Amino acid sequence: MDENGSAQAALAARFEEHRPRLNAVAYRMLGSLSESEDAVQEAWFRLSRTGTETGTSASAGAGEGAGADPGEVRNLGGWLTTVVGRICLDLLRSRQSRREDSLDASLQTFGETHVPDPVVTRVDAVDPEQEVLLADSVGLALLVVLETLAPAERLAFVLHDMFAVPFDEIAPVVERSAAATRQLASRARRRVQGSAPAAETDAAKQREVVEAWMAATRAGDFDALLELLDPDVVLRADSGELASGLSKVVRGASAVAGQAAMFARAAAHQHMVLVNGLPGLVALPGGEPASLGSFTVVDGRIVEINIIADRERLRHLHIPGVDA
Asked: What is the residue range of 36's domain?
């Protein structure tokens, strides 16, 4: 191997050391597993193509030090974090622009909802890389709230509050002053704290509630379902083109219990899995995933249910096979 090849291999090895953290940043920014992988790969292309394109230490900021040798970067991880953040910010802004330019008014008219990609694992096996991805208990309920933030707010909140990136390093990415960037994060924090319920962190307690929910759903027991639900529970369903009669957003214990009781037959195919590290349910009629449910439990009651029932999306998610 020539000198350039050796240098590239050494750079690739350094990058791989940071990949798990970068995947975690991108997942929180985008809520999409495939887009997160693409964003991290793009960061590698930029690094390898120009030798840290902007060639900076994290302490110098994302726009200085152009042309520096990768070996001279004092904090490659910090630099890569801001690069991934910038790539994700561009993707979020592109998403927002497409929604605003869309001629399909039905998305708003009929209350379509989007549930971010979950990380699904067997209850008896958690991959170490997925543990890194899910560090700090990033549940679907939190990702749903992050989807409501403006792109720059989301970047400031994710990088600062979740990954401790200083505001003066985030500021060049969002093209604001450090003080204005602090305000972005503050606004995002208030919305997150006001909207994302503080979920039960004891997996055993959550599993007990989810198992009781599965049993009550299979039995079509409306009263038992009602007992498990917080009065202000929200059920959110991303069903794509599925014509099942399942409403997109349902609020209130009686309405949610009524929806669940309608699907007693489908519930016979449900199995326990971990959804973003906490117990959830996947329905596998005929061995093919038909729905995936994530539950947020607070004080022994379900306060939020997020369901993906879009078979096209489910086919593209990695959902482990579960024995009946």
From this structure: 3-101+148-195
Q: How confident is the model at residue 124 (pLDDT cuts 50, 70, 90)?
A: confident
How many whole angstroms separate alpha carbon 6 and alpha carbon 259?
A: 60
Q: What are phi and psi of 293, to 5 degrees?
A: -120, 135
What is the tens place of the pLDDT at every residue in 144-192?
999 999 999 999 999 999 999 999 999 999 999 999 999 999 999 999 9
Would you tell me how many other CB atoms lie within 10 Å of the CB of residue 192? 18
pTM score of the predicted model? 0.82
Residues in CB range of 271: below 8 A, 6 or more apart: 281, 282, 283, 284, 322, 324
In angstroms, rounded to a whole number, what is the distance separating the alpha carbons of residues 25 and 134? 10
Task: Look at the chain and report how many structural domains it folds into.
Answer: 2
Instruction: Judge if 189 and 240 occupy the same domain.
Output: no
Query: Two tokens at 170?
Result: 């985030």
| Residues 259/104, Cβ–Cβ less than 8 Å | no
Q: Which amino acid is at 140?
A: L
Which CATH number does the domain housing residue 33 bear?
1.20.140
Q: How many angstroms separate the CA atoms of 82 and 62, rounded?
A: 6
